[in-house]
């Protein structure tokens, strides 16, 4: 595993825009073409195997949480408990998710967290970096990049042909809109009909007890790039569990999106090589460095890293939510002056590819400002 | 051999298309690409190795995507929306979702 530099081509911005990736410059040169991470095939295998393994453990953990009625430990409000249980018992299908790993090319990948509800950096991983490969290393190398194919396959597993699916997103975010638009396209290629709708435009018809789009079309299946714990706290939240609408991701995925899943996994699978020790109390790490995280957050928000004497190593400034989960300190590896974090994509039940975010050496917490870097491995 | 190994072997050596969609296929050689029904110019052998390149890209005419919403247009906000009826006419209330984003600290979206 090493970082390789390239001379970027002058027209890459236009090419990226042409494939639907038009937020490449935000924030702060988010996307760059002048470097990539090189792996060996065995290393890719190691990451894929860890993804499969952790996904298997996650499903056992959900079963454990539902069976033992311990959703309060994950910060789930009581109003959701029954719906989550029903969703799990019905085995409502999941579309996709992304595990964030600490990986150095040698030691087993370690799970930082699972972005199970509203994962993004999808176009970058599924499309943009594949195009990058074609531009910069057209011969003798490939990528772990099956997200696109597997999304199409997964849609066709979830819904019958010609089904209508609405895809909703927060319209103030270009990134979210592009991501929803890309997912809509994979659904179309799976033979489905799609309608994109800003989350603010979703209507509730009290007479018919149904959600509707702007054409008064009933919403029966809805992919939401919008977190469950917000949906349920908003004005229409009381209607969200109508039996006549199916949501993607399904309600049970909120259990995996909560960082409260990390202590549960550690409890069920102690000392597993792909897990970091995690607890709901910091005292477990007395005398050792650790990371403190809130139950729900995005992009490294409200994460603090502590030394063994309790002093702060690094603290993210944004969001400032209260810490709820404490995880073993395991800093991103420093390789060639940079700190890569591996985002490993799961589509359905299948490990489907990786996308890499990196910081320069001094920064330990991966945030919105961390750049996306392509990867490849030699054949 | 796990599923990943199988997929990689298919990807690299078997010259089998990975999905039913024609948008992104990879063939081991230009000859195999042509044999699968593609035109020579479609079988882009980036290495110009006379057909020995291991990775061949087959961009679909018109782009990578299914072209339902692509190619993207700057400022695109989804398919044309019908004019929303005034509240009380259709009985459909709107604006009951989406407030969370306003409180979100980052302009880069609510995804993770």
What would you note in describing this structure?
- The complex is a heterodimer of chains A (379) and B (112).
- Chain A has helices at 12-18, 41-68, 78-89, 122-136, 147-158, 174-189, 228-231, 253-257, 261-268, and strands at residues 2-5, 31-39, 96-102, 110-115, 141-142, 164-169, 193-198, 203-205, 210-212, 221-225, 246-248, 278-279, 290-293, 304-306, 312-315, 325-328, 338-347, 350-360, 371-378.
- In chain A, strands 1, 2, 3, 4, 5, 17, 18 and 19 form an 8-stranded mixed β-sheet that branches. A 5-stranded antiparallel β-sheet of chain A has the order 12-16-13-14-15. In chain A, strands 7-6-10-11 form a 4-stranded parallel β-sheet, with helices on one face.
- In chain A, 28% of the residues lie in helices and 26% in strands.
- The mean pLDDT of chain A is 92.
- Chain A is of the alpha+beta class and 379 residues long.
- The longest helix of chain A is centred in the first third of the chain and has 28 residues, at 41-68.
- In chain A, helix 2 crosses helix 3 and helix 5 (147-158) packs across helix 6 (174-189).
- Chain B is mainly α and 112 residues long.
- The longest helix of chain B has 12 residues, at 3-14.
- Chain B is built from 3 helices and 1 strand; from the N terminus they run H-H-E-H.
- Chain B is elongated, with a radius of gyration of 23 Å.
- The chains are: A alpha+beta (379), B mainly alpha (112).
- The interface between A and B is large, with 95 and 64 residues.
